[in-house]
Amino acid sequence: MTQKLKFQDYVDIGLSGTKADVDLLMGYLTEGADLLRLKLVDNALTLIRTAEGRNQIQYYLFHGTDIQRNYAALYFKRRGFMNIVHKAYTKGLLDKDQALSM
Questions:
Q1: Coil, strand or helix: which one is 89?
Q2: Number of domain units in the chain
Q3: Mean pLDDT throughout 45-72?
Q4: Which residues of 23-52 are buried (b: 16+ CB within 10 A; e: fewer)?
Q5: DSSP string, 3-63
């Protein structure tokens, strides 16, 4: 992923909240991503309010890479959906720190 997005692009993606938008954001979450990109993606994810976007974030919670699962868990924890985070934890997809910390 080498496409350069501006802050407003991330905001627009988050507000749109489609499945494709979540896929794009999650594609930026790699172990080599710089801190700025991680913060921009995190901010954009917090803006997602659509059921379609939420469902796709849930997909990444159960099927994503470690870093994608971390950000998906954070998304659900911020909204108080601890039941889904607990489910991922009991399946061994998150460690205790990931599941319980904010």
A1: helix
A2: 1
A3: 97
A4: ebbbebbeeeeeeebeebbbebbebbeeee
A5: ----HHHHHHHHHH--HHHHHHHHHH--TT--HHHHHHHHHHHHT---HHHHHHHHHHHHH
Q: Is residue 2 part of a domain?
A: no
Domain extent for 83: 7-100
Q: How many CB atoms lie within 10 A of CB 79?
A: 12
**Domain membership flag for residue 69:** yes
Give the tens place of pLDDT for each residue, 3-19.
678 999 999 999 999 99
21 burial (CB, 10 Å; 0-12 / 13-18 / 19+) is buried
